[in-house]
Amino acid sequence: MFNNKVGSKTVTSSFAPNSASTVELKPSYNIPIVLVILAIPLLIVQPWIGFVVALFGLFLMFQALTLRLQFSATDLDIYRGEKLIRRFPYQEWQNWRIFWNGIPILFYFKEIKSIHFLPILFDPKTLKACLEERCPRI
Questions:
Q1: pLDDT, tens digit, for every residue of 109-125?
Q2: CA-based nearest residue to 25, from 93, 78, 104
Q3: What structural domains does the chain harbor?
């Protein structure tokens, strides 16, 4: 399902994305949940490492709950609630990649002036479909 922003409301549809619509990715809690579960036995064996892993898992859970990625016709936008916190225009992208296709955990993209690594906290299939449509790999 894809959320297309129309005016001030979000329209949900099951159609494939097109470059003219805005697609909002649904959150995925897979990585945070795995980290928190992994931290439980680590807390017994190595308490400090287990604590750090659990804390990181909870931080990623918070990020998945609060951040929204939207693919518009021209940009990848990151929102916290209704506030736009970062915009990445596709015209500045040089390359992108999703690491470990079987179990996608990391999204990389390179802009003209910077490189970004993001944990996959969003639906990886929709992420890949939007990337392939809006920013074909170089």
A1: 999 989 999 999 999 99
A2: 78
A3: 2-134 (2.30.29)
